[in-house]
Design a protein that fits this description.
By secondary structure, this protein is an alpha+beta fold. It is elongated. The chain is built from eleven helices and 21 strands. The strands form eight sheets. Strands 2-9-5-7 form a four-stranded antiparallel beta sheet, with helices on one face. It has a four-stranded antiparallel beta sheet with strand order 13-20-17-18. The chain has a three-stranded mixed beta sheet with strand order 4-3-8, with no helix packed on it. The protein has three domains: about 150 residues, Adenine-n6-DNA-methyltransferase TaqI, Chain A, domain 2 (Alpha-Beta Complex); about 80 residues, Helix Hairpins (Orthogonal Bundle), CATH 1.10.287; about 140 residues, Alpha-Beta Complex (Adenine-n6-DNA-methyltransferase TaqI, Chain A, domain 2). The termini are close together.
Length: about 400
């Protein structure tokens, strides 16, 4: 009895065995590089067009209409399969793309076109099935080569798959595709909110030399003041004694303040050597002088862990007062304070660490509106972060659901 573990109600028939070549007419791609042009009307599907989530990756390559491309134009419901992989991991090889619109794409060499027999097979079902990790293993096992692995269509076309009736195919395909569409929707919302946040961070704090921001909540008209960091925050000099605090923190540009153990998947400092480290309390700010592409003068983040820990003396720890913590936290997400840093410090001889004295650092100018306006700004950006987190969590949940169903809805 050949049946999947999870099945829609009402379907009881055994699934039947079919070969890959049975799904439709297959045609191998040939080189069309000579037809590439900025003025081309077709999007090109080539080895770089296949992503690890089996969605078309637009490389910006276009091809002109010509005799050479006329028989390489793809139609709606076609599938294309990549037969080569530039990586030794095999994360791309055998992946399939579903063509959802006719006359838009042409396919290059190393790609096989499959014109689906629509009388017997649902293209959405085949797309989901062939990309399912446990099913794609069939093709990966056929791979040959070292620096660039490949599969031979003649060989893999004989691979056998278990297929249900056309009606059941449609049900499975629609269900899995609906999850994919939801993932795409939440991912798009997440990216849109990130873009909005980035834009508003630039517009809701004054530009250098200005006393008011370009975008402001209604009801606020006063000029912003300016405070030095040492006027609204105190540098923390409190040091760990007798290992009173035993959890070392790190300050990541991407993840913020995080336990060293979580960040490195282990503690890189022996707990017995934490004496002399600065004590970091909840809501304290930490400056990390290590620079990166995303943090060209080093990141400043606030401890949101809700617990105390310690930081190496290489970091600068400060505790704010007379200013809204959320407001200050999001100000440090802008690049507006970078100019002060570059004027008063440098990246050093190693080019991986920014050098500035703690005294000079605490002289940093901070734009200072009324407390009420600070709170409004902080709450606004916090709400954007919450939206980003919710959309990302939903994406992760849906991906886990789809992963589980892909493992259990096919034989």
């Amino acid at each position: 009895m050949e049946k999947p573990k999870i099945r829609f109600k009402g379907y009881q028939e055994d699934w039947e065995q079919r070969k890959l070549e049975d799904f439709g007419k297959a045609t191998g791609g040939t080189s069309i590089e000579s037809e590439f042009s900025e003025d081309g009307i077709y999007k090109v599907i080539s080895i770089g067009s296949y992503s690890e989530n089996s969605v078309y990756n637009d490389q910006g390559i276009r091809a002109i209409k010509s005799d050479k491309t006329s028989n390489r134009v793809l139609s709606r419901n076609d599938l294309t399969m990549i037969l080569n992989d530039k990586t030794t991991s095999g994360n791309i090889i055998g992946r399939v793309l579903l063509i959802e619109e006719s006359g838009i794409y042409v396919y290059n060499q190393r790609t096989e076109r499959i014109e689906i027999n629509l009388d017997e097979y649902d293209p959405v079902f085949l797309y989901e099935m062939l990309n399912a990790p446990n099913i794609r293993e069939k093709i990966i096992k056929q791979a040959q080569g070292n620096t660039q692995i490949y599969v031979n269509w003649t060989a893999i076309s004989l691979l056998e798959y278990m297929i249900p009736s056309k009606e059941e195919q449609v049900k499975i395909g629609e269900y899995l595709h609906s999850i994919s569409n939801l993932i795409t929707l939440h991912q798009r919302k997440c990216e849109e909110t990130k873009i909005l946040k980035k834009y508003m961070l630039q517009k809701m704090f004054p530009q250098n030399g200005h006393s008011v921001p370009e975008i402001r909540f209604s009801g606020f008209t006063e000029d912003w003041e300016q405070r030095k960091l040492n006027e609204i925050a105190d540098k923390v000099s409190e040091k760990n004694k007798n290992n009173e605090f035993s959890e070392p923190f790190t300050n990541s540009a991407e993840q913020g303040i995080i336990s060293q153990k979580d960040y490195f998947d282990r503690e890189i400092v022996n707990n017995e050597n934490l004496n002399g480290y600065y004590i970091v309390r909840n809501d304290d700010f930490i400056y990390n002088p290590r620079i990166s592409v995303t943090a060209p003068v080093g990141p400043i983040n606030r401890n949101r862990l809700g617990r105390n820990g310690v930081m190496s003396p290489l970091y600068t720890v400060f505790r704010a007062h007379d200013i809204d913590n959320l407001y200050l936290e999001f100000y440090f997400k802008t690049t507006k304070w970078h100019r002060f840093m570059k004027l008063n410090g440098d990246s050093g001889a190693r080019f991986d660490r920014f050098t500035i004295s703690s005294t000079q650092f605490m002289e940093m100018p901070i734009p200072y509106p009324t407390l009420e306006e600070q709170q409004k700004i902080g709450e606004y950006f916090d709400s954007l972060d919450l939206l980003i987190t919710l959309h990302q969590q939903k994406c992760d949940e849906l991906r886990n659901i789809k992963k589980f169903m892909l493992q259990n809805m096919f034989i």
